[in-house]
Amino acid sequence: MGEDGTILLGELAAPGFRVRMIGAGGFEGTFEGAEGFTSGWLDFLDAFEGLRIIAEEMFESGDTVVDLVRLSARTARGGVPLSTESAAVWHFSEGKLVEVEFHLDREEALRSAGIEPAPD
Predict the structure, then answer these.
(1) Cα 94 to chain centroid, rounded
(2) Contact 8/87 with Cβ under 8 angstroms?
């Protein structure tokens, strides 16, 4: 644990855990470990002046957790506001994080976790 009582990613994750940033149209970036987690997020955040992640709902399926969130941001170029539904899929094994996927498509995230999305 960190000095302030926070749990550090390195303590929660298995060595070399995988980070996938999955966008629209098949775009995907894959990173490894805590350094990759940071690198992937810094790359993503570079497009925005600011970003808020608002938790909306959570699902658990075995060793997998899905967080449905809303991203609220303003673009770095032009200051265009945007809001979109997104999701994170956290895969655990033996109590350690082995992979995390960040999806811009919630239905794809749910399917990746083995959860069938509810019909509209």
Answers:
(1) 20
(2) no
Integer CA distances (angstroms), 27 to 21, 67, 70, 95, 107, in order:
8, 20, 20, 29, 16
Dist CA 43 CA 96 (whole Å): 25
Q: Is 49 left (phi over 0), alpha (psi -120 to 50) or beta?
A: alpha
Tell whether pTM > 0.70: yes
CATH 3.10.450.50 is right for the domain spanning 13-112: yes
Could you report the per-residue pLDDT of 15-54, keeping only the tens digit for each? 889 999 998 777 899 999 988 998 999 998 999 998 999 9
Average predicted confidence (pLDDT) for the chain: 89
